[in-house]
Amino acid sequence: MITASDLPDTIPVFPLPGALMLPRARLPLHIFEPRYLAMIEDCMKTKTRLIGMIQPRETPGGEKRLQAIGCAGRLTGFSETEDGRYMITLSGMSRFRVREEVQGFTPYRRCLVEWSPFGRDLSREDETDPGFDRPAFLAVLGRYLTTLNLATDWDSLKEADTELLINSLSMLCPFTPEDKQALLEAPSLSTRRETLVTLIEFALRGGANDEVMQ
User: I need a surface site. Which of 10, 62, 122, 150 has the fewest CB within 10 A?
Assistant: First the structure.
């Protein structure tokens, strides 16, 4: 297991709009761009095999910047297709705050990061949400999935671990990148669940896809 002392100061980052990684969750990715194929190959040579998932953002002047907070995942699954693409799985380890982007000779982006604000993320124990009302939550979720014409395994949802349920839905639901960022930055599982419910209720009230929650 990775400990706080193992976390490197600099990590490669993968800016991908709408892709949310959370601690103790898993994110499958399909890698085909040459720069990110190189990133995976370099990552596999390191001790920690960490890659930072982060939301890109564009400034009013058109400059491509990164959000201040992302989440690093450890490369735990890897397969290669016949045509040279990679299918990987990242296991979420810890969020990080970007201190600065590192200029160098790699074709992919790297950042100097700070881990200390998110020391609890490396805990081996799941987070708890004492105020979680599962029946009420599933009722709201059911209405939301109906509007999307999606089916689900309700028996599994009724039995799922609370953290796994909330984090998986945060990652899978089709929210805007800005909304995904709000879910990432939630300071606790309870706050993330409240944010998730707010986003679902906003969508049920007819919020447009291009509207941003304030």
Answer: 62
